[in-house]
Structure formats: structure tokens, C-alpha cells
Design goal:
By secondary structure, the chain is an alpha/beta fold. The chain is 44% helix and 16% strand. It has a domain of 135 residues: Up-down Bundle (Malate Synthase G, Chain: A, Domain 4), CATH 1.20.1220. It has 24 helices and 23 strands. Strand 10 and strand 11 form a beta hairpin. The radius of gyration is 26 Å and the shape is globular. InterPro entries: Malate_synth_C_sf (IPR044856), Malate_synth_sf (IPR011076), Malate_synthase_TIM (IPR001465), Malate_synthG (IPR006253), MS_C (IPR048355), MS_N (IPR048356), MS_N_TIM-barrel_dom (IPR046363), MSG_insertion (IPR048357).
Length: 699
Amino acid sequence: MTAMTDRADLLVAAPLARFLEERALSETGIDPAAFWAGTAAIFARFAPRNAALLAERDRLQAAIDGWYAVRSGRPFDADAHQAFLRRIGYLVDAPAPFAIDTHGVDPEVATLAGPQLVVPILNARFLLNAANARWGSLYDALYGTDALPGAPRTEGYDAERGGAVIAWARGFLDAVVPLATGSWRDWDGGQPPLADPSQLAGRAGDSWLLRHHGLHIELVIDRTHPIGRDDPAGLADVVLEAALTTIADLEDSVAAVDAADKVAAYANWLGLMRGDLTETFAKGGRTITRRLAADRAYVAPDRTPFSLPGRSLMFVRNVGHLMTTPALRLPGGEEAPEGILDAIVTSLIALHDLHGARANSRAGSLYIVKPKMHGPEEAAFTNDLFDAVEDLLALPRHTIKVGVMDEERRTSANLAACIHAVRHRIVFINTGFLDRTGDEIHTAMRAGPMVRKGEMKQAGWIAAYEQRNVRIGLACGLGGRAQIGKGMWAAPDRMADMLAQKGAHPASGASTAWVPSPTAATLHATHYHRIDVAARQAEEALATVPELDALLTPPLAIGRNWSAADIREELDNNAQGLLGYVVRWIDQGVGCSKVPDIHDVGLMEDRATLRISSQHIANWLLHGVVTADEVEAALARMAVTVDAQNAGDPLYRPMAGDPDHLAMQAARALIFEGTAQPNGYTEPLLHAYRARAKQREKA
């Protein structure tokens, strides 16, 4: 049991109190007693509202469950459905046309288009890699992945593959920064005779800096380098400006269940905001210390020196409204809403950037992504909470910017109203297929069995969802003021496929999209050179917004008669993905990792993946597509598979045949209690089982 200490009638875990008073508050000029009094006042004001919002979610879901129950077996009636949702308050009237008026936004968010990373905040090494992924070697990204056919044939440098890399890179330069005459293949390393001379941005020594669509390309000239010495131009590398922004994640990609976890997470955020985060580790027999990259110095064509950011602009993703934390208890003894604590602490920590050297935001803003909000009332709650935090910390109004994740059905259906509720501070909306699908299944859980998971992306509501997000965002004035984002490429080892497919995201008018690694960010950056996002947004702004009926029609498997083999295949697929993720979460506290799927393809998995898998099985179980015995059999089969896939992990404890294995117990609960979980979320059960696992470790 963690020791608790009293602060302004709040019970605070001693490690958290020490961190806040000795580190986070240090050098901010805020008196600790005043901070705790203000924090207590915020909880007193907002914790009851938070609880009321969660109760409203439950009321709406119960009404929807009842509506579907009395219509069981009838054809879906879109008009009656929409009228019902308006009657119960699930749908609200859209606001009159408006434009957001967010100010003080860094160009990486407001005007530039490029890749975005999401990284678990508990892993300092990953955080540093992501922050430093602002710039990436195109040569390395092409050479070391399947972006080009084949693989290096030797442990040393494979000159044939190197030649293919160089040819691809020069072809890319010909396409996006063409020369006035000839090809980059024939360039001699002197001042590039560009077709558009304004694309020459400057120099760094012998190297050249180009700019296209606002993004920079550095041509590294080094005739002593093993690559550059054999190149007619002395070109040793092509370095791209890549991950413009990164989200340091306190939510779906981490397993933070107690005060120790929260303090570790907050400490890493403090290191980012102070600019002094480091991590030391062993690699290849050497000890390496990684730290944040410095800014990059250049000289403009008119000989004026200037610098460019060396690091990705950092967002922080707080948790949603649902979860509470044992790290702080309210005067009545109940756990405090974790999202309120995150808002206060991450904002306090950001003072070290805002009042310091501006290691992160040059515009003087703090960027908080708020996930899993359901509708405009919850967005308004977040806006009011951020007002209160700004007052506590004596920050100018709307210093705290908000990113609204469009990943819940009620937010998608009322997106304009949600944006309107935070119109003075919004800097980001995005779509996320997995969480959004998990909520789709749970919301319409009693409407009938859902299509197979692989068919979901072809369902009509998905296309409407993706298009509505961009077009409503543009109609609300986000173009040139805020990011419009798209979801994750989940297969980090399949870069050829990513290059072939992920150009669809900027082509849709989205100004950013998530990628799973710094290497993927470098390759995805090429899409933002090939596609003019600003031009695409101008076209999308004129397009029609898909009707609500298309969005609100659930993906039901009407008239399907799956074979026993189809059902078993679907069950195994879901069970394997579920177990492969849950076992690392419960046993090792790993919230995001590359998990082999049933075909041994490594996929980046987090709680969003788990939500759809568990809800899909729960839906089929509810409607009799599968039986409890069939689910148990699938879990048993896939435990053997997952054990084999993790055989090389010395920290792994096999699940098969072990009835006391907490990960297997958690997986079963996620399925068999899935219909009862609030909005189908996995967090309550995961946190409970992870806490039990940590207690076992201490015993």
C-alpha cells in the first residue's frame, strides 16, 4: 500500500506529492500551499461534473440498448433511428456556421503538413527517439527496410542496394524539387540550378538546404564519407524534415495503474519540457546516452544565419474522462478522476517550457490531446477545466490548446458542435479506426451481430466517418489553423506497403497522420512532398459532407450465414490478438509494442486494438454466433500460439494450461464481461488485473 499524505484535504500518494513539490513546482514561482489549495478547488468543482457526464453516457447507452431490443429482427430504419437519437439527446443541433479562432499556434500544427508520432511516455528511450525524429535519413530509411525490394546481401555495405537507394532518392528529388534542366542524377554538388530558385533555403557548410511545401530537405555533402566519396556530387545523404509533431502518450499506449507509474510518466514529461531528458542504455557492447537533439544552424542565400528546430513539437495526451487514479483521493476517500489530475500536472510541468527556454513551443503554447470524449457537453467540460487550470497557474487564457480525438460515435455524429465547444483553443482533430470501431460495436451491441473485423474498413459508415471529419473540420476553419489527422500505420516492418498506401491520408486533405517509428516518419514525409495538402484541402472544402444516416448505420451482418470454418477463423484471429497484447500489459506493464498477429506479422498494438477485438467477440457471443465453449476453446488454442511467439522473451510466463495466469483471466473478463464494460472500454479491467499482478510481484 502506497503511503498517503494530506494536502488541502486531498489524500495524495507520497511519491506524487514529493515529485510535485520538489521537482515540478521547483522554479515555477508557485507556492506549494497555494498550488494544493487551487488543485483541491478544481477537484471540488469538476469531479462531480465528471461523474455526471459518465452517468449521462450510461443513460444514453441504456436507452439505445432498449431501442434495439424492442426492434430485434426488424429491418434497420434509418429515419426512426435518427429521430430516436435526437429525442434522447444523443444528437444535438449543429451550430450556425463558424470558424475557430485559435491563436498562438506553432507552424508545425497550424500551417505545415507532415507525419506525427505517438509514443508511450513511460519509455524515455522511445520518447527521445521520437522527439529527435524531426529529421531523418532517407538513405537509411530506404536501405534498412523493405521500402525497396530485397534486402542488404552482406553485413557490411551492399553497394548494389546502396545504388538502388541513391537512384530512388534522386528520382524523389526530381519529382519534388526539380532542376531547371537535367536530372539530380547528373548534379555535381555545386549550387543546385533549381527550376524554382525559391526552393533553395540555405546552406550548412558544404550541404544544401531545400524547401518544398514548407518542409525541408538537407542534401548532405561530405566527400570523405563512405557514400559521398564515391558520389559525383559528394552526396552522402538526403535528410528529410519528418515528424513535425509527436504525442507523448499517457493513455492507450501505457500501463500506468498507480502512483509510481504516474510519477514515472510525469517525470519524463518534465524532462521533455525542461529539455534535459536523457536515457543511458547498452547497445552493441557500448554504453550510449541519448539526449534531445540541438537545433540545426544554416545560412540563408542572403548570408543571414538562421536555425530550424531539431526536435519534433511535443503534444501530451492526457487520459479520458472515465478512469480514476489511486494516486490521489478526494475528501470523501474516493479515487480522483485521472483526467483532471493529468490536466493539472502536465500543465504545471509545461511551465518549465513556457517560462523557460521554450525548448518545445516557440509560440508559447501547451498542446494537450484529449481522447475518448463523447459529444459536445464533454468537450465543453474539457474547455472549462482548462480554463480553471490556466487560472491556477496564472497562464493567459487559451495557452492550453486542445486536440479532440474523433474516436467515439457521439463525437463523430456531433463533430461541429464539439469543435464549437473548444473553438478558442482547438488545434487538432483526427480519426482513429480502432477505437471508433470499438465504440460502434458497443453502441449498437444489441442491434445484431457485426460483420467480420476484416470487413469493417469497407463498411459504409467508415467512409462517411473519414470524409465527414475532414470536411467538417475545414468548414469550421481548421485549414491553416489546426491539424486534421488520420490514424496509425500499424505494420512497422511493411514500409513498401506504407509507401504505396499511406499517401491516401494527405490525399484526403489530412495535414498529418500517425506512423509507428522514426523510420516510418521519414518515409511518410515523402508523401507530403508529393501531395499538396493545402490544395487538397481547398478542394475538399467545396465537397459535400456525407449525411448522418451513412454515419449512423451500424455494420450489421444481415443475412450472413458463416461456415464453421469462418467462425473459427474469426474467433482465433480476435483471440490471438487479444491474448498477445493483454499478456504483455498485465505481466510486464507494456502498453504498446510490436505484437505478432496470427500470421506472425508484427503489428503495433495498444488498447484501441484490444477494444475492437474484445467487443467483437462479445457481440458474437451475445447474438449466438459463437458459444461460450467455442470462445474458451479459441482462447486455449491461441494461448499455445502466443506462448510460442514469445518463447524467446526471458520475461514471458506461458499462459497455456495455467488457470491462475492473470493475463488469461483478464482476457476472459474482457470478453465475457464485455457487454457490461462502460462504452466497451478495456481500461477498468486491465488496470484491475495489472494492479493484482504488481501486488503479486511485491509478495
